Amino acid sequence: MAALQTLARRCSTSILKRHFSVSSPVAAQMTVRDALNTAMNEEMKRDESVFLLGEEVAEYDGAYKVSRGLWRKYGDKRVMDTPITEMGFAGIAVGSAMAGLKPICEFMTFNFSMQAIDQVINSAAKTYYMSAGKQTVPIVFRGPNGAAAGVAAQHSQCFAAWYGHCPGLKVVSPYSSEDAKGLLKSAIRDPNPVVCMENELMYGTVFEMSDEAMSEEFLVPIGKAKIEREGTHCTLVSHSKSVGLCLEAAQILEKENIFCEVINLRTIRPMDEETLINSVKKTNHLVTVEGGWPQFGVGAEIVAKVMESDAFDYLDAPVYRVTGADIPMPYAATLERATLPGTQDVVLTVKKSLHIQ
Amino acid sequence: MLSCAARLVRAQIQSKPTACWVVAARGYADIVDEATFTTSEYALHKLDEGPSQTVTVTRDDALKYYRQMQTIRRMETAAGNLYKSKVIRGFCHLYSGQEACAVGMEAALTPNDHVITAYRAHGWTYTRGVPPVNILAELTGRKSGVAKGKGGSMHMYGHNFYGGNGIVGAQVPLGAGIALALKYKGSNDVCVALYGDGAANQGQVFETYNIAKLWDLPCIFVCENNGYGMGTAVERASASTEYYTRGDYVPGLRADGMDVLAVREATRFAAEWCRSGKGPMILEVATYRYSGHSMSDPGTSYRPREEIQEMRKTRDPITGLRERLISVNLATAEEMKQIDLDVRAEIDKAVEQAKADPELPVEEMYNDIFVDEPPFKVRGTNPFMYGMSK
């Protein structure tokens, strides 16, 4: 039991904010913000054709300071402030990728990407296919996704399901600093269009970084999930900030001798079905957790995948989804809190799955 | 409606070439090597001077333009017939009547320059170097098509040619992005981003003008104004139909799009402007399409047949060039007739191949989703069917 607990602790990177680990020698600690910054810096240093454009990315150091210092280091040519014209600058970014550059197109939040979504889908995602392999679009669209704090309905939507729907796009959703650095680096090096959905509330979260993660050649492969915590009773699968929620819930449930396996999807599209299915075959119970809306969401897709796979025969309960409430995000703090899933939602749902209480 | 059509025709007619002179005396054997013509006036916006109205063309170039325009005309006619016999499906937007725009512009560009246009793209695909047989085979959806039949009419790509774009106006920011890449790489080349009078009102076009001017992008924005956005005449869609001025702070000019030499001269002027680092320019070419917006539109419910016939009779770009060449002994009627026959034979042969070639095998539908990716499973139409994407 104790060994299992130590194993579980070693497997997870960091669970709570500002958590200083002393369990094993560790190379460094990094916030998610710095991890993203490092990723862009390293890739811009490595490849002349990589550049960053978006609102406030240059002289302001980034609306959320993710691009801090990059303009001072690389100058106007490589870090470009754009006017507030998403459709225009996203189209320009896509065009520059078609002509051989490697743009990182930042949306201040993915809510604003809706104004440019035609360029992301019709100009970027579909072009390699429509041209039968003649025209590549090596672009990264990145920015914060999902709910922040008190920003209300128009600024709180999660776009994982919308972008995850489309063939021709790769969609990643990092949780930890290691995820953020490795996935963004992979995304920048990937010659296909990649949507990298970050989370504003995670930018300041500190995570341990292994020696390997600190190296300039550290990449996290797109399309591979990570088992953050091994378990035997129930699988929790999630992406982005909700992974933290699952790890918290797993700790709570552990006190009641319920051991959850926590999977961090890392990539929404292509989703790592193999890891999911193997886990379900092991635990026989699955609960999906996300911040986005329930209908047609990431969880809904996971349920469908599991239903159609041979993991179905291993289920001892239906697959359940924990999601944001099916309403536009309210402003008032109590209402907002009630709109987003909390640990109690995950704990309750796991217990329902296990027919406990 | 009739009055605005008449105004359009009147405006076009005013730009018919007037003066020309010969280098040598006329005679059957006295073919000249080059000749000079006068184009109609260019309208200028925020420009102190514009392109020259005096244009010189060599015999070789003139015959090349003639052949190219005739090839586009024959190819588009063939496409129309293939559509009517249901061998081409979906969308098919014909370029007939607008040939002087693509041919004239190409004449002032090099293959190192870049071009992006909207969906009326077959003519441009050809001038950018794709053989007619591969264009027609793409239209008929065969694997010998330039996009293996996966793109269709609106999605044909070539060297430094980015299609073929189906969403009205979306190609304009893309074009400025290509120009950004050219400037970024320190290249001397330009990007030509074309759009129609309908697309000219799109918000993203103005967003693009703004960034292109702010960042001095080497982009020529070309408005192919054919008088109609689908079934809506320009007066009914645009508060201002002076499309060459719509860029406000972006200098612009308007040229006669039915005169291949005027188009060439205007493009040369615009390209020089962009190459010298002065930023973008707008070039409006006043042109006309004989067909409807697409093959599902007869093109006669919103404009009088007389207008179409009048344009064919008096303003046709191919006839216009032919008459010019003959009038100054740059070429004989016989050799141009021979070009007509050669082109017809080439297109006829291409049509036969476009009809006979096979489509891609169905398993290949899963390919070309990602580049540089190890083979991966792609779901088909039922849970038990998967393809491999290679």
From TrEMBL, chain A:
Localization: Mitochondrion
Keywords on record: Metal-binding, Mitochondrion, Oxidoreductase, Potassium, Pyruvate, Thiamine pyrophosphate, Transit peptide
EC number, as in UniProt: 1.2.4.1
Catalytic reaction(s) noted: N(6)-[(R)-lipoyl]-L-lysyl-[protein] + pyruvate + H(+) = N(6)-[(R)-S(8)-acetyldihydrolipoyl]-L-lysyl-[protein] + CO2
NCBIfam families for this protein: PRK09212.1, PRK11892.1
GO-annotated biological processes: pyruvate decarboxylation to acetyl-CoA
Subunit structure: Heterotetramer of two PDHA1 and two PDHB subunits. The heterotetramer interacts with DLAT, and is part of the multimeric pyruvate dehydrogenase complex that contains multiple copies of pyruvate dehydrogenase (E1), dihydrolipoamide acetyltransferase (DLAT, E2) and lipoamide dehydrogenase (DLD, E3). These subunits are bound to an inner core composed of about 48 DLAT and 12 PDHX molecules. Interacts with DLAT.
MF annotations from Gene Ontology: metal ion binding; pyruvate dehydrogenase (acetyl-transferring) activity
Lineage: Eukaryota, Metazoa, Chordata, Cephalochordata, Leptocardii
Pfam assignment, any one: Transketolase_C
Protein name: Pyruvate dehydrogenase E1 component subunit beta
GO CC list: mitochondrion; pyruvate dehydrogenase complex
Domain Transketolase-like pyrimidine-binding: 30-205
Function: The pyruvate dehydrogenase complex catalyzes the overall conversion of pyruvate to acetyl-CoA and CO2. The pyruvate dehydrogenase complex catalyzes the overall conversion of pyruvate to acetyl-CoA and CO(2), and thereby links the glycolytic pathway to the tricarboxylic cycle.
PANTHER family: DEHYDROGENASE RELATED, PYRUVATE DEHYDROGENASE E1 COMPONENT SUBUNIT BETA, MITOCHONDRIAL
Cofactor(s) named in the record: thiamine diphosphate
InterPro entries linked to this entry: PDHB_mito-type, THDP-binding, Transketo_C/PFOR_II, Transketolase-like_Pyr-bd, Transketolase_C
TrEMBL record, chain B:
Cited PANTHER family: PYRUVATE DEHYDROGENASE E1 COMPONENT SUBUNIT ALPHA (PTHR11516:SF60), PYRUVATE DEHYDROGENASE E1 COMPONENT, ALPHA SUBUNIT BACTERIAL AND ORGANELLAR (PTHR11516)
Biological source species: Branchiostoma lanceolatum (Common lancelet)
Protein's gene: PDHA2
One Pfam family of this chain: E1_dh
Residues annotated as domain Dehydrogenase E1 component: 67-362
Enzyme Commission code: 1.2.4.1
Essential cofactor(s): thiamine diphosphate
Uppermost EC category: oxidoreductase
Gene3D superfamilies linked: 3.40.50.970
Organism taxonomic ancestry: Eukaryota, Metazoa, Chordata, Cephalochordata, Leptocardii
Function (record text): The pyruvate dehydrogenase complex catalyzes the overall conversion of pyruvate to acetyl-CoA and CO(2), and thereby links the glycolytic pathway to the tricarboxylic cycle.
Protein name per its UniProtKB record: Pyruvate dehydrogenase E1 component subunit alpha
Keywords in alphabetical order: Carbohydrate metabolism, Glucose metabolism, Oxidoreductase, Pyruvate, Thiamine pyrophosphate, Transit peptide
GO-annotated biological processes: glucose metabolic process; pyruvate decarboxylation to acetyl-CoA
Keyword Transmembrane in record: no
Superkingdom classification of source: Eukaryota
Reactions it catalyzes: N(6)-[(R)-lipoyl]-L-lysyl-[protein] + pyruvate + H(+) = N(6)-[(R)-S(8)-acetyldihydrolipoyl]-L-lysyl-[protein] + CO2
GO molecular function terms listed in the Swiss-Prot or TrEMBL record: pyruvate dehydrogenase (acetyl-transferring) activity
Quaternary structure (record): Heterotetramer of two PDHA2 and two PDHB subunits. The heterotetramer interacts with DLAT, and is part of the multimeric pyruvate dehydrogenase complex that contains multiple copies of pyruvate dehydrogenase (E1), dihydrolipoamide acetyltransferase (DLAT, E2) and lipoamide dehydrogenase (DLD, E3). These subunits are bound to an inner core composed of about 48 DLAT and 12 PDHX molecules.
